[in-house]
Design a protein that fits this description.
Bound molecules: adenosine-5'-triphosphate, L-homoserine
GO molecular function: ATP binding; homoserine kinase activity
Distance between the termini: 36 Å
Pathway: Amino-acid biosynthesis; L-threonine biosynthesis; L-threonine from L-aspartate: step 4/5
Number of strands: 11
Largest sheet: 7 strands, mixed
Shape: globular
Binding site for ATP: 95-105
Pfam families: GHMP_kinases_C (PF08544), GHMP_kinases_N (PF00288)
GO cellular component, one term: cytoplasm
């Protein structure tokens, strides 16, 4: 069978940062944030050329091991074949290894770009297949679901197949992130989790995760209770003690704060009007970044 044909024009893809877990929704809940990586992908006659500016420019490989390239390659395989050459220009703003979904953003950018530069790509690789492939590359669906769909997502595995639904978070919620300078890889943070947990803790998280869906979409006044977690944050404290201390301190002051994803970033879900107070409560040594909620998820944009 003949391989696919590719567009001569470059495509630009923008992918949002994401915060997974949100307290009790381990590997299930995700929130898309208004902080973006941008990549321009062009099919070329030969070779692989990668330009990187911003986060990771000094550390990520500029070859076939680059996560974006691995994701492009995996998607091109599903689309029917590889282009002869590729040129990528990456503008990275999402910090790496901080719990803000940088790997999910790179993976989703790669597969969305591969689909966009392939003629007939949308017919060959539908949105459900995109989620499945992204989940396979990332290892769990929570960040990639929020990254692809935007908003607030609930994802799950159904017989090995990733599924997700998208909800709209209450627009009075203002995400405030506190990003430590030091990275903690997701691999390290997952390695700290026990193989089994007490039944009472699992039951508490199930109830809180269900409540969180209501709190984040309709009743933000319930967010403090709804973001309580017993399944991952304390187990991860040895790798991010200052972050867990900040979470506990903010919560004691009534702020719904959690470890974002696998950490070490702290995410506070402030009510609009209270974001400045949250920043002050964190105290010295913590820089607060107020972000918007992202509604649209991964997008193919016009070239600037
Ligand atoms: N834009 C990118 N280009 C290339 N590689 C990337 C990019 N973003 C992330 N990566 C790779 O992913 C790694 C970070 O992934 P990791 O899962 O540890 O953390 P995270 O995705 O930032 O946080 P979390 O999964 O907790 O939200 C980086 O060290 C790098 O190897
Ligand atoms: N649910 C994942 C998110 C980070 O990728 C974790 O906490 O390990």
């Amino acid at each position: 069978m003949a391989g696919p044909a590719f567009r001569a024009a470059a495509v630009r893809v923008r992918t949002p940062a994401t915060s997974a877990n949100l307290g009790p929704g381990f590997d299930a809940l995700g929130l898309a944030l208004g902080l973006y990586d941008d990549v321009v992908v062009r099919v070329a006659d030969a070779g692989l050329h990668i330009d990187i500016a911003g986060e990771g420019a000094e550390t990520v490989p500029r070859d076939e091991n680059h996560l974006l390239v691995r994701s492009l390659r995996a998607a091109f395989d599903l689309l029917g074949g590889q282009p002869r050459g590729l040129e990528l220009v990456c503008a990275n703003r999402i910090p790496h290894g901080r719990g803000l979904g940088s790997s999910a953003a790179a993976i989703c950018a790669g597969i969305v770009a591969a689909r966009a530069v392939t003629i007939g790509g949308a017919e060959r690789l539908g949105d459900e297949a995109l989620l499945e492939l992204a989940t396979e590359l990332e290892g769990h669906p929570d960040n990639v679901a929020a990254c692809l769909y935007g908003g607030f997502t609930l994802s799950w595995m159904d017989g090995g197949v990733a599924r997700a639904i998208r909800m709209t978070p209450a627009d009075s919620i203002v995400p405030v992130v506190f990003v430590p300078a030091r990275a903690v890889s997701t691999e390290t943070a997952r390695g700290l989790l026990p193989r089994t947990v007490p039944h009472v803790d699992a039951a508490a998280n199930a109830g809180r995760a269900a409540l969180l869906v209501e709190a984040l979409t309709r009743r933000p006044e319930l967010l403090l209770t709804a973001t309580e977690d017993r399944l991952h944050q304390e187990y991860r404290a040895p790798a991010m003690p200052e972050s867990v201390t900040l979470v506990n301190r903010l919560r004691a002051d009534g702020v719904p704060a959690v470890i974002s994803g696998a950490g070490p970033t702290v995410l506070a879900l402030a009510e609009s009007g209270a974001a400045d107070k949250v920043a002050r409560l964190a105290g010295e040594g913590w820089a607060a970044n107020r972000l918007a909620l992202d509604a649209g998820g991964a997008s193919v944009l016009p070239l600037a």
